[in-house]
Amino acid sequence: MKLNYKHTFLIGFGFFASSLAWSMYNTYVPILLERYLTSTLLIGFVMTFDNIFGVVFQPIFGALSDKTVTRLGRRMPYILAGIPICAVAFALIPFTGSLATLMVVVIIFNFVMSTWRAPVVALMPDITPPPLRSQANGIINFMGGAGSLFSFFMGGMLFKIGGMPLPFITSAAVMLISLLILKLFVNENKYRIEATNEEGAEKTEKKDSPEKGAKKVSLILILFAIFFWFCGYNAVETFFSLYVTNTLKDASGNYLTAGDASLLLGMFSITFLFFSIPAGIIGSKAGRRKTILTGLTGVMVLFPAMLFTENVWILRILLLIGGAFWACVNINSLPMVVEMAKWKDIGKYTGYYYFFSFSAAIVSPVLFGWIRDFVGNYNSLFIYAAIAFALAILCMAFVKHGESKESIKP
C-alpha cells in the first residue's frame, strides 16, 4: 500500500488556504485594531476570537459534516461554501472605516472559518487509508507551513508595495485559487466504497465490548496529552519574544530586539516545516505513540536547556532541533485520534482534537502570564513548558490505541 502523494498534496491546498489566512490575520489585524483601541488587553481579547470560535463551533461543524450526504461528499460542501465567504470578508478587513465595521467583518470571518476548518482537516483521514494517515498528515502540515511562510515573506513585500490592503486582497485571491484546485482535482466520493465497507464492518462490534471501553480511555488520555503539550507550545510561542527582549543581550550589552526574537523562533518553524513529511514517515514505520513520546521528551529537555546559554547561535541550534522534535509530536497526533473513530465519526473526532488544542491556546497564555507576574521573570517560561510536556508524556504513557491498522479489508 502506497500513499498517493499527488492527491494528498492537492488535499493540502485546503490547509494551505487556512494557514495563509490565519498568519496574515495575526500579523496585520492587531495593527488595524490599534487605530481604534488604546488598550492592549482589548486588542488581545479580540485576537482570541479565533480560538473561542474554534472551541465552540469546530466540534459542532465537524460532527455535522459527518452526517452530511451530498453528491459532492460530506466535507466539500462546507469547504466550497466557507472559503469564498472568508475570502470576501478577508479582503474587506483593511477597508473598514470604523471599529464597528471592523468588528462585524472580523466576527463573520472568524465564525465562517470555524465552520470549515474541521471538515477540511477531516477530509484527509476520510480518503486516506489508516496506515498512511501519518504520512499524509505530514504532507498536509507541510502545505500549511508553506501557507504560513507565504504569508510572512510575501505579506511584507506586498505591504511595502501597496500598503495594508494589498496583502489582504492577494491572500483572498490565493484562497480562491486553492478552492478552485480542491474543486477540480479532489473527488471526495471516489473513496465511498471503501468507507462504506469499513463502516459496515464496524457495526458488528458490540456496543459494550472491552475493546471499545479501552479505546475510550485511550481517546481521553491522548486528548488531555494534546491539551498539555499545546499548553507548553502556546506559552513559548506567545511569550518567547518577551523572553528574548527582556533577558538576552548582544555582544555590546544591549537587549535583543523583537526582530531578533522573530528570527530565532523562525528557526523552529522552518525545521518543523521541512521535517513534517519525515515525521509522518517515522510515525508510520516506528509507531505513532513511540514517535510522539520521543518528540515530547526531546522538547521537554531542549527548552529548559535554553536557560543555560545566552549564546544566540546555540539557541538557534537548539530551536532547529526542537522544531524536528515538535514535528514528531504534532504530525502524528491527529492520525492517532481519528484512528479510534469509526469512519462515520471522523469529523466529530477531528472536532475533539481542535477543542482540546484550541482550549490550550486560550488557557495557557493567561496561566503563564499569571505565573510570570508571580515569579517576576521570563526564565520560568521554559520550566512551565517542560512541566506541560511532562504531563503530556504521563498521559501518553497509558495510551494503548491509535496506531495505524496493518491492512484494510476490501
Summarize the structure in words.
The chain has 410 residues and is an all-alpha fold. It has two domains: 5-185, Growth Hormone, Chain: A; 210-396, Up-down Bundle (Growth Hormone, Chain: A). It is built from 14 helices and no strands.
- Compute the number of helices: 14
How does CATH name the architecture of the largest domain?
Up-down Bundle
> What Rg is obtained from the alpha carbons, in whole angstroms?
21 Å
Strand segment tally? 0
Provide key terms for this protein.
0% strand, Growth Hormone, Chain: A, mainly alpha, 410 residues, 2 domains
Task: List the topology elements.
Elements: H1 5-33, H2 40-46, H3 49-66, H4 76-92, H5 99-126, H6 133-162, H7 165-185, H8 192-202, H9 210-247, H10 258-286, H11 288-305, H12 312-339, H13 346-375, H14 380-396
Helix pairs in contact: 1-5, 1-6, 1-7, 3-5, 3-13, 4-5, 4-7, 5-13, 6-7, 6-10, 6-12, 9-10, 9-13, 9-14, 10-11, 10-12, 11-12, 11-14, 12-13
